[in-house]
Design brief:
The protein is built from 4 helices and 10 strands. The chain is of the alpha+beta class. It has one domain. Strands 3-6-2-7-8-9-1-10 form an 8-stranded antiparallel sheet, with helices on one face. Strands 4-5 form a two-stranded antiparallel ribbon. Helix 1 packs antiparallel against helix 3. The chain is globular. The two termini are 17 Å apart.
Length: 154
């Protein structure tokens, strides 16, 4: 499958935790240019967590629409961050599982982007995570993560 072909969707069958979560973060960071997370005005977050990512932030903006979500409430703030070894380490240290990225401690909805294409999206408070594969290479990278349970979306 090449970039011009259709996209294949796979979703997480369970919350990646522990070493599976850390391996997932490494693969996502190693094969993405950027990632983002969001904060919502009506929720509280640990500002020190967001500050740790500040040196790697590319931009922040407000929106009512992001991966898998459209809000009727106040606009959310999206933090777009460089995917690199340092930010990967932060992602691995700040939580022990993917769906731990929720208020009041952590920002929400981690989304990873390669070449302006969101290839992993998640809505953490709903415990939903999905991969969008445009290549067999990316799919095989994810399928090789020990302990990660994913299923194809028909």
């Amino acid at each position: 499958m090449n970039s011009g072909d259709k996209v294949e969707y796979w979703r997480l069958a369970e919350n990646p935790a522990g070493s599976t979560y850390r391996r997932l973060m490494k693969v996502l960071c190693d094969h993405s240019d950027l990632f983002y997370f969001v904060t919502r005005k009506e929720l509280k977050y640990d500002k020190e967590v967001i500050e740790q990512f500040r040196p790697y932030m590319k931009e922040t903006y407000k929106t009512k629409k992001w991966a898998n979500t459209i809000t009727k409430g106040p606009a959310a703030t999206v933090y777009v961050i460089e995917a690199n070894k340092d930010t990967c380490k932060l992602l691995q240290q700040l939580s022990d599982n993917l769906y731990g990225w929720v208020a009041p401690r952590l920002p929400e909805d981690l989304t990873f982007i390669k070449n302006n294409f969101a290839w992993f999206t998640c809505t953490t408070h709903e415990e939903f995570g999905e991969f969008s594969f445009r290549s067999d290479h990316c799919k095989s990278l994810i399928q090789q993560i020990e302990g990660l349970k994913i299923e194809k979306v028909d």
